[in-house]
Amino acid sequence: xxxxxxxxxxxxxxxxxxxxxxxxxxxxxxxxxxxxxxxxxxxxxxxxxxxxxxxxxxxxxxxxxxxxxxxxxxxxxxxxxxxxxxxxxxxxxxxxxxxxxxxxxxxxxxxxxxxxxxxxxxxxxxxxxxxxxxxxxxxxxxxxxxxxxxxxxxxxxxxxxxxxx
Amino acid sequence: xxxxxxxxxxxxxxxxxxxxxxxxxxxxxxxxxxxxxxxxxxxxxxxxxxxxxxxxxxxxxxxxxxxxxxxxxxxxxxxxxxxxxxxxxxxxxxxxxxxxxxxxxxxxxxxxxxxxxxxxxxxxxxxxxxxxxxxxxxxxxxxxxxxxxxxxxxxxxxxxxxxxxxxxxxxxxxxxxxxxxxxxxxxxxxxxxxxxxxxxxxxxxxxxxxxxxxxxxxxxxxxxxxxxxxxxxxxxxxxxxxxxxxxxxxxxxxxxxxxxxxxxxxxxxxxxxxxxxxxxxxxxxxxxxxxxxxxxxxxxxxxxxxxxxxxxxxxxxxxxxxxxxxxxxxxxxxxxxxxxxxxxxxxxxxxxxxxxxxxxxxxx
Lengths: 165, 364
Fold this sequence. Notes:
The complex is a heterodimer of chains A (165) and B (364). Chain A is of the alpha/beta class and 165 residues long. Chain A has a domain at 8-110: 2-Layer Sandwich (Beta Polymerase, domain 2). Chain A has helices at 8-21, 45-54, 70-73, 117-128; strands at residues 26-32, 35-40, 60-68, 80-88, 93-100, 106-108, 131-133. The longest helix of chain A is centred in the first third of the chain and has 14 residues, at 8-21. Chain A is globular and about 50 Å long. With 364 residues, chain B is α+β, with helices and mostly antiparallel strands. Chain B has a single domain, classed as Cytochrome-c3 Hydrogenase, chain B. Chain B is 48% helix and 13% strand. Chain B is built from 15 helices and six strands. In chain B, the strands form two sheets. Chain B has a three-stranded antiparallel β-sheet. In chain B, strand 5 and strand 6 (320-326) form a beta hairpin. In chain B, helix 4 runs antiparallel to helix 14 (348-355), helix 6 (164-188) packs antiparallel against helix 11 and helix 11 (252-275) runs parallel beside helix 14 (348-355). Chain A binds chain B through residues 1-4, 32-33, 35, 37, 59-63, 65-68, 71-72, 83, 85, 89, 92, 94, 96, 114-116, 118-120, 127, 140-144, 151-152, 156, 158, and chain B through 39-40, 43, 45, 47-49, 51-52, 79, 82-84, 86-89, 210-213, 226, 231-236, 238, 295-298, 300, 307, 309, 311, 313, 315, 321-322, 324, 326, 330-331, 334, 363-364.
């Protein structure tokens, strides 16, 4: 329900700023339902996050979301996608970065830029089994350490596997 | 006394952890060196479960997240689905949602001040706070039949209209709350013991709070004016006047003051909303087997505990492909370690209480 007309121009400005600064790593950008999603390359994720945080006013990394695209992409190695939900409270806009986790099922950790990424990444590690390189303490956050498998993967059955342990 | 680091375990069964939270503490005599929260004792796999349910079936499941503010959970999820599906909610329903969400905030804050004071040793506040909260739960009961896990917001609107007698009853309760609030504040604001246990305790700086993703009253207690109702207005909140109360010092005492002032602001909001109830339907037509067009969306609301966000991705079917919940208690708890460092062991309970966490939405 669109309560407020979303400032598409402001979001397009952010996209342009990102493209100007990182012509190599910024790929597609989609504007949908008043939200902008920008596809970024993995090599410059941290630089992009730093740029957005310190030069564009996106002071909050609100959340990190992992997706398992098994159903649409099939059993390929690169079925995982990470979404970084950023908020600029001064300008009142949100921006979403989209990153392919790739064949080795990992991504650089965002903790050096945003401390709020700590538990979000541990949760994704626990639920999806994606590794975050450079995370200070990447262990399971909800499930016991001995648990086998990662429940939010699409090929993990809803009723669980045995006792899980 | 010589330096000696001791490891202490608090919880998961402990009356002051508000559920089943376990804290691994390292202390040097009475001073806390580090805190490590250990989660998962209440983990039910909600996000996995939601992938197998239809959108309509998920709404009542959200009641069980933050079980002290289930209407806020309903609202957060329903607004995200409506944004994704492009459902236009009737104006009257939007305003009724404001009334319900703010009543829920009152109930949540009144319960909080009771628990918080009880944790610190002031039992009587619990009774005062709960007396008023009870009246609000009675309103919910009359409105929709539930008291604690209220399923009071539906896709497309609200289940029923607010009628005259119910509005009169809400107004009576609103008239009574300021008296209770006055009593609570008269007992606590200048109370020497209360102040010793809260002023300058569990301090976090505005910069650290923002960096760690803190939201809600704990963030506003540091003086950062962020409130989703103002910054990203939803459900007609921008039609009404209200202030965002701020603290200065980011300590437990300021968190208490911010919440007490938020009670006044919520009362103000409900009064305006009841005056401004526009005529019309209270529910848009939404089919029971609701197919949401493919796409993705993130929508956040200001729940009593902070920013409650839902990310929903639909593949065009009647069940979501992925729902991710940004639960405020989970993210806020990340700051506990920093707030406790260097404080007394006895204050860990007070600092934890001041964050207002609910394990139902931390463990999901």
